[in-house]
Amino acid sequence: MKIEERTVAEYHGRPVKIFDLENEHGLKARLMNYGATLVSLLVPDRAGHLEDITLGYDSFEGYLGNNPYFGATVGRFANRIGGARFVLGGREYLLARNEGPNHLHGGLKGFDKVMWEAGPVSDSHSVGVRFSYLSPDGEEGYPGNLDCQVTYLLNENDELHLAYLATTDRPTHVNLTHHSYFNLAGSRKENILEHELQIIASRFTPADEHLIPTGEIKEVAGTPLDFLKPQAIGRRLGELAAGYDHNFVLDSQGGLALAARVVEPESGRVMELYTTEPGLQFYSGNFLDGTIRGKGGRPYGRHSGFCLEPQHFPDSPNKPQFPTTVLKAGEIFKSLTVFKFLVV
Ligand code: GLA
To answer: What's phi and psi for 201, nearest 5 deg?
Structure first.
C-alpha cells in the first residue's frame, strides 16, 4: 500500500494538495483537498488493464470552472431544498438560491468549492486521507458551526471507504454525499447506457418538474425505475422526459447494506455500492451536453457518466415524514459508504 502527497497549485494562499493512494492490486485513487474531491480512480478490467473510471479534469484549474460536482464531497445539504428555506426550532432560515427558487447541493459555495484540511491516514490494511472542514454559522444560510470530517480509505479488498462525521453547536440540517461520475468502460465507450444497473430499492420519492419531492413514496414496480433485477441503464431511459435523476428509497434502512451494483459487460468491471444512508440518487448525466471538455480533452456528452449518490432524501427539512436530517448540539452525524470493485 502506498500514499504520496504533493502540492500542485495555490488557492487563496493555501496549497492545493493531491494525494495518490495505491493498493497491492494496482488500484489507484487520487484525492484533492479542494472540495475533498476524488479526482481519479484507476481500476483493472477483466484482463487486468487499468483505466480511470471517473469523469473530471486533468488540472486543478478545471475544477474551478464549469464543474458539475465531478468527484466532489457535497454539503451541507446534498440535493435540493424546495424554496431554499426551512423552519427549525420555530425560526425560518433562508438559504442560497442556486437553482431557480431552490437550493441545490449546499448553495453557491458548497463543500465542493471549499478548501479542506487534509492529512494522510493508514492502518494495517488501508491507506487514505482525512479531510476536515469547519463550516461557520450562517454559511449559505445554515445555522450552527458545523465541524465535518470525510475520510477516504483504500484497502486490499479493492474497496474505497468514505466515512463521514459531523458535529454542530446549534440544531441544523446535514446531508452529505459523494458526487463521482462513473463510466466503468473508461474511455472505451462514450456513454453509460449499456451498463447494467441494479438498485436494491422497491420505492422512490416522486418529484415535481423542479425535482422537489412531492412527499409521497411510491413503488418502482411497473415503472422505468425498477432496477431490482439488473437492467441496462439505456433500456427504459427514453420513457423518462429528462432521463434518470431520482431518489430511491433503499430497501435496507439502517446499517451498512448493498444499495447498488453496476456491471459493465465489455470490460467486466463491476462496482458495488454499500451505504448506511436511507436514499440513493441515481443521476444519468442528463445535463452533460458536450460543452465540458474533461480529462484528455474529451467532450462529456449526455449520459457520458452516471452518479449514484448515497444520501438522505431531498427536501427532508420540509418533509417531516422523511427520515430526519436534523443534527443537534452534542449529537454526532455518522455515515459510511463503500465502493467495491471486482470483475466478471
Ligand atoms: C445531482 C442532481 C442533478 C444535478 C447533478 C449535478 O445528481 O440530482 O439534478 O444537479 O447533481 O449537475
So the answer is: -145, 125
